[in-house]
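@channel sequence for tomorrow's demo:
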Amino acid sequence: MKKVFKITLIIFFILCSNLLAQWEVNIDSDIIYFMNIDKYNESTFAVAVYTAIADDFSSVYDNDSIATVLVFSTQIKKNTNLYFRIKRKSGNYINYSINNDEDIIEDDEDNIYILIGAESDSGIRGDNLIKILLDSVNIELYNKNTDELLGSHNLKGLEEILKENLGDTEWYVKNIKNQ
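structure tokens (generated this afternoon):
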């Protein structure tokens, strides 16, 4: 009986570890990345914050582009209609369209990313999406034409990891904590 219990417990922990959000924090110069990886769909979801101005009062109140939502998947192609399906904590869903001209970026090495808020004149789009995500449990990336799932990311722990690493910055206080 003990063997069956132990095996059941091990299987439970393995399954739970795949369901719970695991966040990685990477710092690259003045940018801090909070990343969540979907190994099954080979997709990475991240919130990136430009820390050099995250505590600059004038940058925060001028709505400079401080934070962005980034998604990388090998399945993202230029001129593909993509959208996020976001499950809110209330159980409701939001479909968030991705703009091909503004949100899909190709770098020098031919990698293609989704960057919400990075290419706009102000940081309002990125901040607004982050606020939505903080009140959500899951974000999925879909191809609009085929309804193919390209990535699924559990958002559990996003607010805690932002607070732990940026909780004393002007950006966090104004845009996250006081919302």
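heads up for whoever presents: Confidence is low (pLDDT under 50) at residues 1-20.
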